[in-house]
Amino acid sequence: MDYKYEQCYVAFLDILGFREMIREESCEDIFNLFSAIDNKNPGEKLTDSNIYNCLPFDKVGKIVMSDSVILFVETSVENSLGSLIVYCCVLANSLLRREKPVLVRGGIAKGEFYHQNNHFYGGALNLAYELQEKIARYPRIIMFEKLEKDIVYYNDLINKFLYKENDGFLAIDSLMHIKKDELELLRKVCEDSLNKYIDFSIREKYLYLKNRLDSLS
To answer: pTM here?
Structure first.
């Protein structure tokens, strides 16, 4: 077997509040959550996703590890970055729209990545993880700054799926296509959580989401 890195776009996504879910929700509820993540055709949730010539979802690599999801696609594949952006958006969007909304934080990077069977590692994965863990902070999926050069080939995506954050990072708009009643549910989740928690690290996540929701009003 030839062991070598491939150049890939890699997204590292973290399901926020997963430990609390384990404590408070049934095994079946958790199973249903992962079934939603494992949906083989998430693009159908966005009626206009086919406009962007997205790859079939089974062509985008996926690894699920407890509360983390890794999506990856080789850079040599046509429309690889565009497809990854759309599917990250669809995944985060679908989890937000659940009866019990689930928040996702993540990072997207480009670089060397090895994936074979249960073995996966590389610089792109490390960077995507660090973006998620140390920089994203809030329920958002951000992109490594250098990827903005790659994004120029996807002008429609910039306007449709991405927005610029105050700290300069491009972020995926997981609130797109959210209906009015779903927005109200998310606002209630934010209010209830802000009344429930005193831990600042938790509160800042819901304050961020509340501000995003208020900006859509």
So the answer is: 0.88
